[in-house]
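Q: I'm writing up a methods section and want to include an example of the input and output format. Could you take the sequence below and give the corresponding predicted C-alpha cells, formatted cleanly so I can copy it straight into the document?
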Amino acid sequence: MRKILVTGGTGYIGSHTVVELQEEDYEVIIIDNLYNSEAEVADRIGRITGRKPHLEVFDLCDRNELNRFFRNHRGIEAIIHFAAYKSVSESVRKPIEYYRNNLLSLVNILEAMKQHGVPSIVFSSSCTVYGQPDKLPVDEDSPLKPALTPYGNSKQTGERILSDTMAATVGLSAISLRYFNPIGAHPSALIGELPRGVPENLVPYITQTAIGLRKELLVFGDDYNTPDGSCIRDYLHVCDLAKAHTASVARLLKKENRKSFEVFNLGTGKGVSVLEAIRSFEKVSGIKLNYRITGRREGDIEKIWADPTLANNELGWSTSHSLDDAMKSAWEWEKNLRDCNK
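A: Here is the clean output for your methods example:
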C-alpha cells in the first residue's frame, strides 16, 4: 500500500478524506494536535473501514518533533495538509496565533518534505481567497481580493508559499484545493462536523437548533441583492469533497499534473441561499426550525459559488450528492452523536 500522511486527519474534512483514502487502499498516517477534534475519531474511522489509521498527536509547529516523525516513518509518498485553525471570527481576535499556526506548520512541512524526500502535497485552501468576486461563478482565474481576516490571509499566503516553493524546488509538486462550503456527514453517521462551542457554520447550527441544543438559529441579513435577500453559498457534501483529495493524490502520484503548482475550485456550481438551505433541512427532517432574521454579520460576503469545470475536467471529479442528501446526513450524524452521549 502507498503511504499517505494526512495532517489534521481527525478533523471534519480530514476524517472523511482518511476514510476515502483507506477505501482506496492507501496506508494512512495522521498527525493531529487535537486542538479542534478528538482522538476517538481514529477509532470511528476504523469502524467504518475495518482498519484504524495510525495517529500521532503533536503540534506541527514543533520542527524537531516533525523531523522525528519523518525519521520514524519512511516511504511517505504524499501529504494532505488540513491542519490549521479555521475560525474566521477567532482569527480576528487572535491574529498572531493564526499566522503562527497556519503558516509555520506549512513551512515546517515543506522543509521536512525537502529533507526527507516526500515529493507531493495537497493543500487545504478556501474560497475565502476570492473575497466577493466581481463575476459569478468563480473560476480559478478570478482575481484574489485582499483578505478581510487573518484566516483568509493565511490561506492566500499559504498558497503563495507553496507556489514560490514549487517554483524554486525541483522534484516537488503541489495541488491547492479551494473549497466552497462543505456540509453533511458520512452515511454511517459515525463521523461528521463537530464544532467546539457555538458553531460558526450554518449546518451544525441548524442541526443543533433542531435537536434543542440551541434556542434559535439566527439568519444574518435578509436585505442582500439575492432572490430571497439572504446570503448565497455553494454547499457541497463533505464526502464529495473527500473524493477530490483522493483524486488529487492520484494525480500527483501518477505525475499527471501539468504544472508543479496547480489550483482547483471545489463546489457544485450552484448557489444556495441561507433560507433555501433551511427549507431543505426542514423538508428532509420534518422539523420546523426556530429561526430569526437579524442584521448582517460583519465580514460576510453577499454571494459566491464555484465554476468547478477545471476540477471536473482535470481531476475527473464532480459532486454526486444533492443539498437534501447533505442535510439528511448531517441530521443523522447529529442524532447519532447525541444518542451516544446520553
